[in-house]
Design a protein that fits this description.
659 residues, seven-stranded mixed sheet, homodimer, 21 strands, alpha/beta, five-stranded parallel sheet
């Protein structure tokens, strides 16, 4: 009883602080926070093995708050525990006063979990719902690879559990028997606009979990003893029942202790200042009613097992890696014999090579490893255990990759570029988390011509480009977008991606295309290549259409037009350098790309207009929705993107001849 | 037995044609197609009520091929049935010869279902997996609203059923008791790269469906009698057991009849030309083994119930709709009294008004109707039945909207703009389907400042802008992107969206902002507004930051700089008009927006460089990842996007004074 009394007392205190901080901020979610108070108290004060002074210690158990809006309850515990935070540049224990800065511009505690702002207890930014269980799975996999006995607790809202990604994560956990993760469903019966559906009731949630192979405990989420018993049972599963899965479904009360004050559910609404005292008193009354009484020693913080992450192999800068060396190492010397190689294969070789030189490199795929060529990595006996097959569930894949990154790994996640679209929201949350994510999309642009538009990535460059315009604290872009045109460039950029600390997206196209470069050509994130120097018109392309552009430049040459051929393989690029090149070509520019507008051509337009001066730019891109064509050449014709079309466009600018 | 013998004979014929057409195309998925042969035969030749000469008749049952890559089996049946297709501009019965044009540029039968190219039997483009069940649900809802007794059959691959969206759709069906939809899980045990997980086995699939409240029949998917019995049982559910749900799980064989010829699974691989005869013979042998024997009359095509869609109320062009009229009608005259109104509220009023004047208008939300103000529609007793609460499952919401559009409705789907990202892939499939989709994202850009970046849409404009650069057959953009700055503009653009036949996305921001316009101001898709005419520098903004831009222009005026203030509320816009405005302002342009780059500013850069001439453009946008701030003003300061920042940028161009 002493344990229960102390939990009630602490939970009530945390709820009160959660009320105060959201009232101070005049926004936030105290009622959702309160529904978690007892669960969080038993977790953070008794069951989780962690040290508040080192909340992200490699050996520490982790808590992922999938329902991110409930964060005030965690902040309240952190303030009470004096957890280490970073505030205004300095690292120090969190205070109650800090908690009251919730959501302020100068506060590290954001409205939703945002570890990058100075609260490292959270392993990931959350707040777009449904992603936490996948992140938890990634954290658990990282610990496994490091030989660390880590448990990961994931708090999931009932309304949130409508998101299909939760069930993708459940299946993924089942595939990998990831019972280090303890999913805890917080069933307070309310969504934002109304009650949750019967489909998200505790009973149905339990049935769904059982159907997926989990043992489930349905508990009262405000009963300290029941919570502790369930968490202890989970620990037994994690330790001794390696082949079985375990989950907790907790019935809870939204606004525990002060729901009458809110006069209904009050999702996302703070207690108005005028009602604050009444709300605090109501919580006290409720605490008294359930027998709350704090007694030091009833709850015992558990120290984390001592653990150290393996020293990462020095990033491979010291070993110059080349495509030729990789092919030699893997007995594939003949791959280049015909002078063509699919960039997706070069990606597969590079990934496998990286796996050998850096033990942190892990790979994920979504059931298309025999198309993306991540199978080169997956089938290598040395690397196999670092490959994670996510099946056809891209949202889960991206978030698992995020969890692996949070756990210190260097994840490469791949599928067809079109299907990465499925995980754009998850990717955004990964970027907000500042995860070191590497995405590779294959079958890009018009590559899958015969399959038709449902398989074509045509908006990917525009989407990723937007993120590339934002800067990290170090001044580098939040994301690099890479579109290599040949196998050498692909290989070199995959290596550069691994060396870079930050997110990158690379398009590794499907078709076998001619080699344009060699092992010695230098490629950098942010770089570009001038392949042919001219003076009459600048023709810039990348990826698949660089080959059409090259044919066009050769054809123009025969007509007396000296065009410059530019490989714009990176976004962002050096805008001034491109503007100078344009100036040298009379201010006449043609861009060509196998995706919609607002992409590479728009980035060139940005650069030219930012530079200032007189320019004319004709952008050639996919300007209608494609359809199937048996061969890419037909598709290019359909869309007006052949070498001949480029020639005509360039002639329109130059008046048909050199100047 | 005669029935079974005829089904086997027909199924074998369809498989053979599927083999031939994929071999002719040298790509495609004959093995997946073959696993569906018996299911498709019983459906299309015996149980579905449809007329091949009018495959998209309002009264017809529909078939949604969620696993789009299996389409050759449907094309084979369509060729055999002489189904109506549109080929080369003319409408005529499909032939066997047509089937052999699979995937050709000049063929209407694409590599994946693509009804827009001339094969209207498919209600939607599919091929990005996991979306068909949601589309089916939308089709069923549309039929309900129209009082039509329509059944919708949805074929779902087992590997595909890993996509969480399938389970979002299952929950949605349960909420609405949508047993007109018959989900059929095709369990051929193979994904692309390997066997499916145990989690996608027939047994686990059946358990999951039961947990969600479905009655499930697990059958042999190559047993004609079992298939017919299950489909007949479904019909009983659809007709008489309105409160119960029904699903079929079918065990099937990938490459039925010719799997040995493929030497393994052969996903996505056609039979090589050299093996074609052997594969066809193997299918014949298998057919003989199971007693195939065709006998006319064993299978009976079922005519569709005669049905007519209600004549849509004439789009409201004849009734000029105004915000003031709407407020009067709804007894909300005071809403404008303070000179401010949140655009999201104007959206809510417009949506409700449209609901009253057009019976096709339907609304969908994802548990945030009290924030997006779709509750104005949902709470109206006249409109309530046309509102669909999708709960926290955005992927399903977008695809359900697609199904409703396919069924003739005019769907408006809304949630926070950030969470629409979750459904970008679904939206893209809707655009490929040419659905008349209207999306409204609220809490846009920096509006949710205190919530932090997890709730902010910063890449939405760039993503939608990419789609806006593609043109429909009528020359209009595939998508309009709209960013109104006040309530009048929002109201007018929502009406314009409804009048336009094509997809639109509108940002309806959260904060109360000053009114800039009135009922009589004209706003058009593709339009813009000059608010203040100047000559020294063009300052273009839209949405939230137009208000900062206005302050900046007023402040510049006091400093002797005559700036032009442009409301760029639409993408695309008239680029030449904007370039002319820029020229009139000395070629000096500043753009400002509360999202990442590659968006409005980039579209201006596109316009200026396409026009040609000498311009200098300074783009101001969100150039770092935001964090929480209690008030938007702090956030603007943090990001350098205040009126003062705009003034300084403009002064940088003008040299601090007018010219």
């Amino acid at each position: 009883m002493a344990f229960a009394a102390s939990v009630h007392a602490k939970a009530a205190d945390l709820i009160k602080l959660a009320i105060e901080m959201t009232t101070a901020a005049d926004s936030g979610h105290p009622t959702s926070a309160a529904s978690l108070a007892h669960l969080v108290t038993v977790l953070m004060y008794d069951q989780m093995r962690f040290d508040p002074t080192r909340p992200a210690d490699p050996g520490a158990d982790r808590l992922v708050l999938s329902e991110g809006h409930s964060c005030p309850i965690i902040y309240a515990a952190a303030a009470d525990l004096g957890m280490t935070i970073r505030f205004g540049g300095a690292t120090r224990p969190m205070t109650r006063q800090d908690a009251l800065t919730l959501r302020d511009l100068h506060s590290p505690i954001d409205g939703h979990p945002n570890p990058a702002e100075g609260f490292p207890f959270f392993p990931a930014a959350t707040g777009s719902l449904g992603q936490g269980l996948s992140i938890s799975a990634g954290l658990a996999l990282a610990a496994r690879l490091d030989g660390i006995d880590r448990r990961v607790y994931c708090l999931i809202g009932d309304g949130e559990s409508r998101e299909g990604q939760i069930w993708e994560a459940v299946d993924f956990m089942a595939d990998y028997r990831l019972n280090e993760v303890c999913p805890i469903f917080n069933c307070n019966t309310y969504g934002q606009a109304a009650h949750v559906s019967h489909q998200q009731s505790p009973d149905v949630a339990a049935l769904k979990l059982k159907a997926a192979g989990f043992d489930v405990r349905v508990i009262d989420g405000h009963d300290p003893e029941a919570i502790r018993a369930a968490l202890r049972e989970h620990a037994v599963y994690a330790q001794n029942l390696k082949d079985r899965l375990f989950a907790i479904v907790a019935r809870t009360v939204k606004g525990w202790g002060f729901q009458e004050v809110m006069g209904g559910q009050g999702h996302g609404k703070p207690v108005p200042k005028k009602d604050e005292a009444r709300a605090l008193a109501a919580v006290d009354a409720k605490a008294k009613e359930v027998g709350a009484a704090w007694s030091a020693g009833d709850l015992q913080l558990k120290a984390p097992p001592s653990a150290r992450r393996p020293t990462p192999s020095a990033i491979m800068a010291h070993t110059p890696l080349s495509l030729t060396d990789a092919l030699k190492k893997f007995g594939q010397e003949k791959a280049l014999a015909k002078g063509v190689l699919a960039p997706r294969k070069a990606f597969g070789y590079a990934l496998r090579m990286l796996g050998h030189v850096n033990t942190e490199v892990v790979a994920l795929d979504a059931d298309v490893g025999n198309s993306t060529y991540t199978e080169y990595f997956a089938d290598d006996p040395v690397l196999r255990q670092r490959f994670f097959e996510c099946k056809i569930a891209e949202q889960n894949m991206i978030s698992v990759a995020g969890g692996l990154a949070s756990g210190g790994k260097l994840p490469f996640a791949s599928t067809f570029a079109k299907f990465l679209t499925r995980g754009y929201d998850q990717l955004e949350m990964g970027l907000i988390s500042r995860f070191n994510l590497k995405l590779v999309g294959t079958h890009t642009g018009l590559g899958p011509a015969s399959d038709g538009p449902s398989q074509m990535s045509l908006s990917d460059i525009a989407f990723f480009h937007a993120w590339s315009t934002a800067k990290q604290a170090d001044g580098k872009p939040v994301m690099y977008v890479l579109n290599p045109a040949d196998a050498y460039c692909t290989f070199a950029l995959i290596v550069a991606m691994a060396q870079h600390d930050g997110a990158c997206y690379l398009r590794a196209m499907r078709p076998d295309v001619p080699l344009l470069y060699n092992d010695k050509t230098a490629f950098t994130l942010g770089g570009h290549q001038v392949l042919i120097e001219g003076k009459d018109v600048l023709i810039a392309g990348s990826g698949y259409l660089l080959h059409e552009a090259k044919k066009a430049v050769e054809s123009l040459k025969a007509k007396g037009v000296n065009a410059t051929l530019l490989d714009l393989y990176s976004l962002p690029f050096d805008g001034n350098a491109i503007a100078d090149l344009a100036t040298k070509n009379g201010g006449r520019v043609v861009t060509v790309e196998d995706n919609f507008g607002g992409s590479f051509g728009a980035a060139v337009a940005d650069a030219l207009t930012a530079h200032g001066g007189s320019f004319t730019l004709k952008q050639m891109y996919v300007s209608r929705i494609p359809k199937s064509a048996r061969v890419p050449e037909d598709e290019l014709q359909y869309l007006g993107l052949t070498a001949d079309d480029i020639v005509k466009t360039a002639q329109g600018l130059t008046g048909g001849k050199g100047r």
